[in-house]
UniProtKB/TrEMBL annotation:
Keywords: Hydrolase
Entry keyword NAD: no
Pfam hit, one: Abhydrolase_6
Gene Ontology MF annotations: hydrolase activity
PANTHER family the UniProt entry points to: HYDROLASE ALPHA/BETA FOLD FAMILY, PEROXISOMAL MEMBRANE PROTEIN LPX1
Protein's UniProt keywords contain Hydrolase: yes
Domain of life: Bacteria
Organism from which the protein derives: Kribbella koreensis
Boundaries of every AB hydrolase-1 domain copy: 96-299
Protein name in UniProt: Alpha/beta fold hydrolase
Amino acid sequence: MSAKKSTNGRTLARQRRIFQVLERVAPAVGARMLDTIWFRLPQVSEKAKRLRVELPEATPLELPFEGGIVRGRIWSGGVAGGAVRGQGGVDGPTIYLVHGWGGWGLQLAAFVPPLLDAGFRVVAFDAPSHGESEPGRDGAQRSTLPELADAFEAVVAAYGPAYGVMAHSLGAAAVTLALRDGFGARRIVFLATATDFREGLAQYEAHLGFGPRIRAGFLRRFSRRFGPMEGYTVPTIVDALAEERELPALLVIHDRSDRETSADGSIALVDVWPDAKLHLTDGLGHNRVLRDPAVVAAATGFLTEGSTERAAADLPKEEQETMQG
């Protein structure tokens, strides 16, 4: 999460003054105030949500989730590009698109047409309190990383196993939590991965002007609800998972000029994820990486690698076992 998205120019100076006073006289109040800001989703303008790519007709996705509705879209893949279609004419393997904090499923729309051309079935959804979905556990305009992960796992459980996943920013962290819970896929693409909450907290500290007393109080509040913040560091989670089981093939794409999530985190992630590939870009920042033609081609190409593997994924279980000997 980026601190700059939590405030605008008109309110920043006032918030800084308040936090500086609370740091001295009432750090517990400051910690509660920071908690409110931390879990509040940024406002997204309609202009930002404008669709930049033409998409084919989709089937609406509506999934009950903890008292609300998660909404999204499902596209059925064709047979273009030599893609393998399943037995009986059913759709090809499924790719799930997972947005990040304050995002929405169609933020990754540029990837949909080439994935469909490759024969994939594509599922995109808005997490609770995001996009067109209804409010989540904490009410409107609020969410948490565990909620994003739980919603993703619920969508996969409802709409079928994943051949692959493409996830942006905090969505990549959510997929990592799902992997820790037992989720499996063959191939994963992470874009502008958010790897460490402590990096975001440092941004908030510099942006809002609070100090160590409010920071410590906020960390105590966070730990009581979710456990220690360092427990959500993506490379640490992956390092432990790699000791337990084989992980999916991974491509990590990150822009060196990204000011919301550091490319250093993605470099550290690739170091602990066996055989992961790293693709660094320049000048795309945090969001333009989602629609850059070269990035779209690289990500789609990675997901479509290995036609024999993809063909086996479409076969009935008994035929897969025969192929495996």
